[in-house]
Amino acid sequence: MSEDPQAREELSARIEQRRSAVATFLRGARPRRNRLANISIVGSALAALVTVGPAVGGTRFTSSVQGIFSLADDSIVWRVLCLAAVLLSLAAALSTNLANSHAVAAQVSAAEACNAELDGLDAALAFGHLSTDDAVALYRQYVAKVSFIDDAPRR
Hints:
Layout: H1 5-68, H2 75-101, H3 104-126, H4 132-144
């Protein structure tokens, strides 16, 4: 590739296009990663919380809850707490497995790193600190890390 300004501009445009695609990906993936992590953490904590009462207090705990809510039978307390623990544990397990199976955290980290590398590459290219051939090689190396992100449509 030659060192003509048009080639540098074309590469700079490609870098900007890829950075736009990465930014679009991150706008969706970061909240998803955070949401899945929060569901897992909160679900696990709440599942533990609903089981601690019967585990520590035993029949006294369930009888007290039965009296507070005017329930006909203390077995209702056990069933509701067990069902709540199962549902919360299920939500925590599903969110953890969804995050892990889709490698959301790893993809977000790779996209953030690629975005920073492309920013540095664009600056080095703009200020002439890098030949076009070297910049193309680095561009290919950086975008290979985020092959899971589709290109943004060209303007």
